[in-house]
Amino acid sequence: MSSLPSKRAKLEEGNSAPNEAVSEALELIDACQNDIDALNEKASEEILKVEQKYNKLRKPCYERRSELVKRIPNFWVTAFINHPQVSGILDEEEEECLHALSKLEVEEFEDIKSGYRIHFYFDENPFFENKVLTKEFHLGTGSDENSDCPSSTSTSIQWKEGKNLLKQLLSKPFTNKKKRNSEYKTFFDWFTDNSDPVNDEIAELIKDDLWLNPLQYYLVPDIEVEPEDDDEDNEDNEEEVFDDEDGEGEEDDDDDDK
C-alpha cells in the first residue's frame, strides 16, 4: 500500500493548511491506485498460470523440433555463430568444440518466475567427457527455502588431458584472440561464471531468443545472399548502354563518310 503523505506534490510544501478539497481528492486517488495495484498483482498471477499452461503445450513441439534438428549437421553451432550477441563470446577453439553440440534445451521451473535450466547435449568429442552440461538459475522469486537469494550453478566440466579450453585461452596471446563482449570473455568463461546470475545477458539471450527460434539464425547466410541479382541486372544495363554508344558511333562515322 502507498503512503500518501510522502507522495504529496512539492507544490504543497510550505502550505501549512492545504485545501481540504485537494487533500480529499488525493486520498481518493491514492485509494484508486491501491485498487489498480491489487488488480495488476492479480493479473500477474493469471498471466503466470496461462504461461505455465502453454509451456506444457509447447513442450511436445520443442521435442519434435529437437529430433528434426538432429538430421542437420552442425545446426546449433551454426545458429550460435550467426547470432549477433552470442557469437561475440565464441573463440575459434570453442567453435570447434561446439560442433559436437547435438541438442540445446531450456527447461523452465514449474514456477517460471523462480528460475530455469539450460541443457547442452554433446556427442563424443576430444575436449571433455560430459554428455550433458547444465547451467541452472534460481532467481529468488520462488517459495523454496533460501529462494530470496538469486544463484546459479554449472556442471563441472571433465576436461580431457591437455584439452582444457579455459586454460588454453588464458595462455593465448591477446593479439590472437577474437574481439569479445566486454562482460564475458569466452563461452566457457560464461558457462562456469556464477558470480552475477541476475544480470546474465547471455543466458537470457539463449532462453528468450535463440531457443525460441534458432531457425532464423541458422538461415541467416541464405538470406544475405539474395541481393546479388541486383548486381547482375546493373551489369546487363551497363552492357546495353555500351552497345547503344557503339551504335551511335557507327552512325556518326557513316554520316562523315557521306
Automatic annotation (TrEMBL):
Gene3D superfamilies, per database record: 1.20.5.1500, Nucleosome assembly protein (3.30.1120.90)
Acidic residues bias spans: 223-258
Keywords for the protein's UniProt record, in alphabetical order: Coiled coil
Keyword ATP-binding: no
Source organism, top-level taxon: Eukaryota
GO-annotated cellular components: nucleus
One Pfam family matching this protein: NAP
Segments of this protein annotated with the region Disordered: 222-258
GO biological process, one term: nucleosome assembly
Protein's UniProt keywords contain Transport: no
InterPro entries, per the entry: NAP-like_sf, NAP_family
Coiled-coil region: 22-49
The family this protein is said to belong to: Belongs to the nucleosome assembly protein (NAP) family.
Full protein name: Protein SET
Gene: 106082490
